[in-house]
Amino acid sequence: MATAIESMGMSLPGSSSNPADSQEKLDECITAGAAIRNLLEKDITPRQILTRSAFENAMVVVNITGGSTNAVLHLIAIAHSVGVDLTIDDFQSVSDRIPFLADLKPSGKYVMADIHRIGGTPALLKYLLQNDLIDGGIMTVTGKTLAENLEKVEGFPKDQDIIRPLSNPIKPTGHIQILRGSLAPGGAVGKITGKEGLVFKGKARVYDAEDLFIESLERGEIKKGDKTVVVIRYEGPKGGPGMPEMLKPSSAIMGAGLGKDVALITDGRFSGGSHGFLIGHIVPEAQEGGPIAFVEDGDDIIIDAETRKLDLLVDEATLAKRKEKYVQKPLKYNKGTLYKYAKNVADASHGCITDS
User: Fold this and answer.
1) Per-residue confidence in pLDDT tens, the chain, 356 aa
2) How much is the pTM?
3) Which part of the chain is the Dihydroxy-acid/6-phosphogluconate dehydratase N-terminal domain (predicted)?
């Protein structure tokens, strides 16, 4: 997200890649004050920086770097706050034309400090600008355009292998995939790098909270060799409430050596540190009576990143019977701030905003 924010012009050049303990970060702390004064004197406001083109830049950078699915939530919410119409379909449109180039963890080899070593985010942005993948004409917090900020930036060293050339991408299209289907008519978001495969079909194991899954895994109930789709529900914006990250379950799956045998789908979200066959942001969420609420153990589920489908393979008659028996769970809070949040929050496909 920090790299995306820099590509939008909302942070100082190099801010997203300067290590916390570096001299560059200390210098940045000093120059930030001067930058703020300059913005005030020139009356440059966030709305002048956060244009449609700025959001396009951010979506490009997220896909180039293999960034977190959280970017979908955050960028849609930020766009809403400044009156820019941004949807999950815009992310798919960008992903369809932008390759995945950065060999970064968790799915790759390197970390952000390595990006800093080869020139940092400015060098990355210059590379993207030279290849006409981002808009250099956007205004930034320096009071100059992005292209002006990058004029004197040196390119990548010739021997670096962190950012692949366009001719040899890790994946020819982006890793952010928007899925729909009988399980997610309102959309879902996958982080599909290609490392975990593109299609997964398995039997559902259903849990109404992430901790219940962890307990089940510790009891050895998820078997290696079985194709299992773990369904963790009631963790969405309303059901959580707050849509918690499923880092613990995804890490537990990989730690147990089940990465090739288990997919995880949820109405919650994922950390940028998560990897594996993971689909989150399922809309409608279980708390709202979405299809994910009707899944039962043993159901067949297919995740197809090629056709961007997420389907529950249960006949309509069976589903109709389950819906008849369905009783909506009460919210986890019935007063206070979290109650007000759960009552007002929008779904994940609309950025979990609370003022719609």
Assistant:
1) 999 999 999 999 999 999 999 999 999 999 999 999 999 999 999 999 999 999 999 999 999 999 999 999 999 999 999 999 999 999 999 999 999 999 999 889 999 999 999 999 999 999 999 999 999 999 999 999 999 999 999 999 999 999 999 999 999 999 999 999 999 999 999 998 877 789 999 999 999 999 999 999 999 999 999 999 999 999 999 999 999 999 899 999 999 999 999 999 999 999 877 777 899 999 999 999 999 999 999 999 999 999 999 999 999 999 999 999 999 999 999 999 999 999 999 999 999 999 98
2) 0.95
3) 1-149
Do 197 and 320 belong to one domain? Answer: yes
Strands (DSSP E) found in the chain: 176-179, 187-191, 199-207, 228-232, 262-266, 277-283, 300-304, 309-312
Q: Is residue 339 located within the same domain as residue 220? A: yes
Q: Specify the residue for token string 């219940």.
A: 212
Same-domain pairing of 142 and 223: no
Domain assignment of residue 246, yes or no? yes
Query: Is residue 187 domain-shared with residue 110, that is, in the same domain?
Result: no
* Active-site residue flag, 95: no
For residue 202, the Cα-to-chain-centroid distance in whole angstroms is 24
* Number of structural domains found in the chain: 2
Task: Give residue 107's domain range.
Answer: 2-150
Q: Are residues 293 and 239 in the same domain?
A: yes
Distance separating alpha carbons of residues 72 and 88, to the nearest angstrom: 7
Q: Is residue 279 part of a domain?
A: yes
Spatial CB neighbours of 95, under 8 Å, sequence gap ≥ 6: 59, 63, 173, 174, 175, 176, 177, 178
Domain termination residue (choose one: 83, 115, 150): 150
Within this chain, do residues 109 and 221 fall inside the same structural domain, yes or no? Answer: no
Residue 250, domain member (yes or no): yes
In a domain, 155, yes or no: no
Please pick, among 81, 271, 349, 356, the residue that the annotation labels catalytic. 271
